[in-house]
Amino acid sequence: MTSPHHHEPTQGVHPHHVGARPLAERIAGAPISWGVCEVPGWGWQYDPATVLAQMAGVGLAAAEFGPDGFLPDAPEDKARTLAAAGLEAVGQFVPVLLHDPGADPLPEVERAMDGLVGAEATTLVLAAATGVEGYDSRPELDDAGWQALLRNLDRLAEAAEVRGLVPTLHPHVGTMVESGEETQRVIDGSRIGICLDTGHLLIGGGDPVALARSHPDRIAHVHLKDVRADVADRVRAGELSYTEGIRAGLYTPLGQGDVDVAAIVSALEDAGYDGWYVLEQDTILDEDPGAAGPVRQVEESLDHLLALAAQWSGVGA
Length: 317
What we know:
Elements: E1 27-29, H1 48-58, E2 62-63, H2 75-84, E3 88-89, E4 91-97, H3 106-118, E5 123-129, H4 143-162, E6 166-169, H5 180-189, E7 193-197, H6 198-203, H7 208-214, E8 219-224, E9 226-227, H8 229-236, H9 242-247, E10 251-252, H10 261-270, E11 277-279, H11 295-314
Parallel strand pairs: 1-2, 1-11, 2-3, 4-5, 5-6, 6-7, 7-8, 8-11
Antiparallel strand pairs: 9-10
């Protein structure tokens, strides 16, 4: 049964390019889909063992780390914990202050990168933190702030590449890089890869399909979300905070909202993208939801993406 917000994709999925791992083997999960978040007071939190077991149980191949404290601190313990659940390590979301000319983000990011390398993860996912908790408000950047941000992104990208990591910047609601225009400014002014979050970019006023088609060479990591455009409009207009939007049903399983997931996947795969697709649906839980819980929605998203992957591999066969 389709939701009232469902729409047919405008572009089908085309034959996969030669050489990459099949799309079905590049689908990962993130703890935020289970309501696990670094923001204080976010909601009821699952224990790591349950989250990882459910990730593996639905057939995800890998996981992002989640917030500090979700997995063990020591990199080798992170790797061991994920491996015990049958999951590869993908990467970590690292919000860091990038726009303050008097602050150096490198030491903080180096610690995160050491952990990524030690856990045999591949991807550094930076976000341009505002310097205040949460994602419900943000200051405006002046030219000096933008220059510092772009300069720091290039420094951090180089440091990550030296360690063999894929460096990305995640445009994210409530951070200093949120909108389509701000994302374009990063693309034009820095060489760092982009983590295309299909939900955050749409909520921030950008067009994830257009970005996937115009700059597929700059997209190095993908967080796949689907979004109800009516709720996103209210968040963008300031009628709802980001947190209130989530509670109002901002996110839906893939294929049930207003993001053209098929068009985005097609554009990236046609261009030779061979990175991860992380199913990441920001979720707030007020209490233990019981056995079904958010894993059902993760499974619906996975089924939708696997159907696209099957269509992809079946075309022309």
